[in-house]
Amino acid sequence: MRLLEEMILSKGKVYPGNILKVDSFLNHQIDSQLMFAMAQEFQRLFRDEKITKVMTIEASGIAIAVMTAYVMQVPMVFAKKSQTKNLSADVYSTQVMSFTHGRVYDVKIAKEFINSDDKILIVDDFLANGVALEGLCDLVNQAGASVVGAGIAIEKGFQDGGNRLRAKGLHIESLAIVQEMNDNGTIKFLSKQ
Ligand code: 5GP
Fold it and tell me: pTM score, two decimals?
């Protein structure tokens, strides 16, 4: 998606450890117009699917996911990374290793918010090694619901998550795929035909 690629080139910063910082429009301050444009693009890319719910993981996926759900006119639900007092005890749970925080989280979602007949689109800000996405798929599978696909804002194509999960049959659409980036700030995208 041209607009997202231009934002990454003009405002993204490459940090050591293969981290792309996009705090000025996606991960801290949020560009609502961009979120809306990305949501519309997900709607176009997944137009053949009958989606009943959008799902993400807290916190960074929430903004894009809620816009996508709004455009698709379905609810959005997000998996929680910590056991808060107000989370029901009746949960589906899985473990996810956070790429950016370097620690394992118990990720939970209340059973009442996923039904076995749900057709779920997973949305997230980044796809790197794919563990967050796998964890979300695991929660959906535990509920007996189905994952129709995953809409990702930025995929780091030089990490193996995207290819590994596509090889397993998951329909993944990434709006920008970073093919190469390095500490001097160079960022190259995989151009889609
Ligand atoms: P994965 O589980 O695919 O390895 O990593 C995905 C998660 O890690 C995303 O939900 C995102 O929050 C975070 N993440 C991975 N790589 C990056 C990155 O380069 N920059 C930022 N800002 N977050 C990342």
Answer: 0.95
